[in-house]
């Protein structure tokens, strides 16, 4: 059974005591474990660090936990080595009070392997689940629906380009979609994807952002020049810079007024671990008053471009030099 289908009604599903997962796609497996963790007390173990005796000991030692328990054992094929019959697993299944075990195997199992022990016994007790990536049509649909759910509209050309540069890899797509949801406007264009997402250019807009908010003048200028050479509009880069400044300001304000940093991230919809780490780094460099001043300076920059028609590319470059040089002095 496909793991994506299996997890759809996980809340009402009666999970069997022992199950086997063929993990062909790491993202699908991760999504399942996340869903499982919202319903069960989940413990992740590694087959190359276990033997059958220690597995039984671990499952018995956690019986005091009232919440339903699930054990996910990665590299389970290591645990299966040398097993000639399924008696151990039959005994284990009987001892699992209010618990389930998912044995994760990274290789695709052949029909012959499934008919040998201990898999033969395991599958007589539980389910065989396949963590495999959906086809390209389904992935396109999933990505598009994610944007719709977040109140965003993505142009077909932008979506096709996004799928192409990530090679339809679900883990990469998740990271890039998170960025676009956080930093792009309500309508996402091809230019947005080229500016914000991974590509073959020397620097991405996030390299520039990271350099700016860590006050690295040399890398800021190098990344800015590279982006402009590759045709990324200066105003688009500037928009991301402003977006970061506003979010950092709100985050700093919430923290200064008693919010825990993770709760502040939650209020801002920041869930990506990499972005959380980046924001924490930037907040060490920029205090609330610094961010207030930065937003004011960015407003003046915007004014000069829209009212006095200064060249966005040169204006942004001058702004970066003046601002970082002043902050470092």
From TrEMBL:
Signal peptide: none annotated. One of its GO terms (cellular component) is DNA polymerase III complex. GO terms for molecular function: DNA binding; DNA-directed DNA polymerase activity. Keywords: DNA replication, DNA-directed DNA polymerase, Nucleotidyltransferase, Transferase. Its EC number is 2.7.7.7. GO terms for biological process: DNA-templated DNA replication. SUPFAM superfamilies: P-loop containing nucleoside triphosphate hydrolases, post-AAA+ oligomerization domain-like. It catalyses: DNA(n) + a 2'-deoxyribonucleoside 5'-triphosphate = DNA(n+1) + diphosphate. It comes from the Bacteria. InterPro entries: DNA_pol3_clamp-load_cplx_C, DNA_pol3_delta-like_C, DNA_polIII_delta, P-loop_NTPase. The keyword Transferase applies. Residues 204-322 form the DNA polymerase III delta subunit-like C-terminal domain. PANTHER family: DNA POLYMERASE III SUBUNIT DELTA. NCBIfam families: holA. Belongs to the DNA polymerase HolA subunit family. This is DNA-directed DNA polymerase. It comes from Hydrogenobacter thermophilus (strain DSM 6534 / IAM 12695 / TK-6).
